[in-house]
Structures are given as C-alpha cells and as structure tokens.
# Entry
Amino acid sequence: MRPLPLSTRVLLLRGAERYLYEVRWSMKIIEEVHRNLVEDQRCTGEQAGHLVSQMMEAFPEANVTENDTLTEAMTNDEADRHVLAATITAGADVIVTDNVRHFPPAGVRGEGAPAYRGHSRRKSQSGVPPVPIILTTCG
# Structure
C-alpha cells in the first residue's frame, strides 16, 4: 500500500483531529507506510519514523489488531488483504488509498468498505467525494 501524497495525508489527519471521522490502521499498514516513504525517496528513514510515531501518538485509538485468519479469507489483491481485514475489524466505512486497483468492488463486496482514490477531486456517482488510512464516522 503506497502512502498517500503529503497534502492528502495532512488533510485526512487534520479532519480526524477535528473529529470529523476516525482513522484506523494496523501495525502492518504503518510499517508499509514507513517502508514505502523511504523506498519512494519521499523522505529519509528517520523522517518516516518520526511521521509514523507522530501519527500513532496523535491517534492511539487508531491501531487495529491484525487477524491472520480474516486476512487469509479476503479475496481482493493478496498484497493488500491485510488492509481489507483491518477495515472489517475496525468496522470502517471507507478505505482511503491511491491503489484502488487492489480493492475492486467484486473483491470487497460484502467484505468491507469501498476503496476511494485519495487524490481525486471528482465526485462519485453517489455524490460522496472519492476521498478514500481507513475511516469510520464519528458519533
């Protein structure tokens, strides 16, 4: 799972900070964010470590316990089955990702929240902005 662009990530985390929704992630998602930021040369290992530690400190309730049995049962792309499993475990409403091809509607139907592209400015046919982190509504 590739990290969202900085502007999208900041926007989503600020929204969560203001209780517009809740963010959720597993430790595997956090590890991927760290690894991919460094591999994509978006930041150094130290900077990536600082970012993920700040995210975890700001949102301690965001961590979702991983469930290997559930992960294995997912039918979406094998590389991101852990994300869909975390979505289900969290009871999330949406998956925010720039990698929507790993979450096709057929692969997530009945299993979890739909995936939306994080950087898209268009609105979906349902009128929900396609601002797909894992999100749950507050309240």
Remarks:
- The chain has a mean pLDDT of 78.
- Residues 45-58 form the longest helix (14 residues).
